[in-house]
Task: inverse folding
């Protein structure tokens, strides 16, 4: 394991794009690259100057302050949903800590989180995270518009977006002690529809290709990694690849990262539109409910290098 060849993911520039101009040639060429990359690698690098370097610096500055809070404070970030609250102090991944905020583009939601962390409030934190999340959300919608257009599923897009929830996860990976493993986060595929990742300039993300090789993703400064999760794999009836990925901490500085996860709303049935199923593409999954799947997923224990959703509702297991 771990051939770790330096590798450049396909890059898509979203800076000049907006959904209103989806008839333009630049939209079309960006869409072609994005869709191909999601099919081949399950991810691509996105540049998006609507999130300026200044805003990025502010986000990571605020996150430094957040992770510097006492553990008892950070542990006030609880959730009735698995994996949505504080995660950390885990024996087999000691470098990792994370916290989560649902619907992070809603100021009130971020404020609720902020007031748990700082009893006197912290308007700067709230506003920075909300502004940033709203822009990430725009990027998420552009990517989904491209995928739905590219797969001729435009007529389903609106309902699909309506049936989606968003969760922002903020993460910290500390530097490993000499006696510790440098594995920051073990290999997994996201269960989300799409995940948009962003880091503080410290590398560490690795992706497993369809051939099983691990590649180090050197993300350019100011760029994002857009990645398909298993829910998109199901929705596209296998067309989009959900890559296994992990974080390896070879850096000598703390790595901070952020992920905007889009997730199917609990109580909605996820299944591919009928256009995705034909003789050449037999149905690969039973329809599923994300909430019921998560219950199964947590009960059965998260297993390294295993597709949870495929295990749960795959028809060809
Ligand atoms: O920190 C990263 O870049 C990756 C995080 C990740 O894969 C996850 O939270 O699912
Ligand atoms: Fe992930």
Result:
């Amino acid at each position: 394991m771990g051939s770790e060849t330096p590798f450049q993911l396909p890059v898509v520039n979203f800076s000049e794009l907006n959904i209103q101009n989806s008839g333009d040639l630049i939209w079309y060429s960006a869409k072609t690259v994005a869709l191909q990359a999601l099919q081949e690698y399950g991810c691509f690098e996105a540049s998006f100057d609507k999130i300026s370097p200044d805003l990025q610096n502010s986000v990571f500055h605020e996150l430094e302050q957040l992770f510097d809070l006492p553990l008892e404070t950070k542990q006030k970030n609880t959730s009735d949903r698995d994996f949505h609250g504080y995660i950390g102090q885990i024996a087999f991944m000691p470098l990792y800590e994370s916290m989560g905020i649902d619907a992070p583009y809603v100021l009130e939601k971020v404020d609720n989180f902020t007031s748990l962390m700082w009893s006197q409030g912290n308007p700067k934190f709230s506003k920075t995270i909300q502004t940033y999340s709203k822009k990430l959300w725009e990027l998420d919608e552009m990517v989904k518009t491209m995928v739905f257009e590219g797969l001729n599923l435009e007529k389903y897009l609106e309902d699909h977006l309506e049936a989606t929830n968003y969760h922002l996860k903020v993460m910290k990976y500390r530097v490993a002690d000499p006696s510790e493993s440098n594995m920051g986060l073990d290999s997994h595929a996201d269960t989300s529809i799409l995940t948009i990742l962003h880091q503080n300039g410290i590398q560490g993300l690795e992706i497993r290709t369809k051939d099983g090789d691990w590649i180090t993703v050197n993300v350019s400064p100011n760029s994002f990694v857009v990645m398909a999760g298993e829910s998109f794999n199901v929705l596209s009836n296998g067309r989009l690849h959900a890559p296994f990925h992990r974080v390896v901490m070879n850096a000598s500085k703390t790595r901070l990262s952020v992920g905007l996860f889009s997730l199917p709303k609990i109580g909605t049935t996820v299944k591919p539109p009928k256009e995705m199923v034909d003789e050449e593409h037999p149905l690969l999954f039973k329809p599923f409910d994300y909430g019921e799947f998560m219950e199964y997923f947590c009960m059965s224990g998260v297993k390294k290098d295993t597709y949870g959703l495929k295990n749960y509702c795959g028809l060809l297991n």
